[in-house]
Amino acid sequence: MLLQAAKCVGAGLATIGLAGAGVGIGTVFGALVIGISRNPSLKDEMFRMAILGFALTEAIALFALMIAFLVLFAV
């Protein structure tokens, strides 16, 4: 009983990284909108960099989710 409760608490703590990833994705695309509004001629270059930033940020979120599942369901 205590072990299961500890696993649930640990999995919940591991998902804190998902909130950080959401903030990071919002920051990336917010900076993209501001950058395009300041210099529209660099739209394609900035969009490629924003997609790279999105992918790296989303990877961190997936790692956090993977750790949460490992804590919860590992033997």
Automatic annotation (TrEMBL):
| Principal location | mitochondrion
Q: Which GO terms describe its biological process?
A: proton motive force-driven ATP synthesis
**Annotated localization:** Mitochondrion membrane
Q: Which GO terms describe its molecular function?
A: lipid binding; proton transmembrane transporter activity
Q: Which residues cross the membrane?
A: 12-37, 49-74
CC annotations in GO:
mitochondrial membrane; proton-transporting ATP synthase complex; proton-transporting two-sector ATPase complex, proton-transporting domain
Q: Which UniProt keywords apply?
A: CF(0), Hydrogen ion transport, Ion transport, Lipid-binding, Membrane, Mitochondrion, Transmembrane, Transmembrane helix, Transport
Enumerate the spans annotated as V-ATPase proteolipid subunit C-like domain: 9-70
User: Where does the signal sequence lie?
Assistant: none
Membrane topology of the entry: Multi-pass membrane protein
- Family according to the record: Belongs to the ATPase C chain family.
Q: Assembly and interactions?
A: F-type ATPases have 2 components, CF(1) - the catalytic core - and CF(0) - the membrane proton channel. CF(1) has five subunits: alpha(3), beta(3), gamma(1), delta(1), epsilon(1). CF(0) has three main subunits: a, b and c.
HAMAP family membership: ATP_synth_c_bact
Name of the protein in question: ATP synthase subunit 9, mitochondrial
Species this chain originates from: Cylindrotheca closterium
What gene does this protein come from? atp9
